[in-house]
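Open question from group meeting: does this chain pack into something compact, or does most of it stay loose? Before anyone orders reagents, we agreed to write out a predicted structure and look at it together. Recording both the input and the output here so the notebook holds the full record.
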Amino acid sequence: MKASHKILPFILVLGIAVTALPGCNSVKGGSKPAGGSASADAKPDTGTHPNEPAVTFKDLQGKDVTLDSLRGKVVLVNFWATWCDPCRAEIPDLIAFQNKYSAQGFTVLGVAMDEEGKSVVDPFVQKEQFDVNGQNRTMNYPIVLGDDDIAAQFGGMLGYPTSWFISRDGRMMKHVIGGITADELEKEIRSLL
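Structure tokens returned:
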């Protein structure tokens, strides 16, 4: 068998594995049901994203927000979109953990990837209510606007939600593709605090 014939089945299997990842696997629109998460640890000594990207976001008021300005906190950078059902499903847990751990130095940084930008994201953040422990709550953590250039600084996106856990000293510690369960969130947050 020629070498090229051995590569084709690998490429087909790889393609199937990528499309089977949970979450919204289209980064431009539409969504697929959530089904868990795929994660990969980014160990600083491997050269894979050892430090947070030197990226500057714009918040919903047009002000600059850098990851460096959050140094000293444990940060969950959560790439999401208003149209993404798995993203919406994990928002109540993100709100709850922002409430529970913010005083201990934790924050979520929600990176909204909607193509329409602020015109869609701002009304969603202001008005959308989520059931958090039996109470209706709006998003309580910082929201910034993202785009393909920003996503590329995090290694690109296969779909949403996609999250990175960043340590207090700016090291990218864990990468999660797809929705994060409450148990997984709490375990990672507590391990970094």
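Observations to bring back to the group:
DSSP finds five helices and ten strands in the chain.
Residues 74 and 89 are 22 Å apart (CA to CA).
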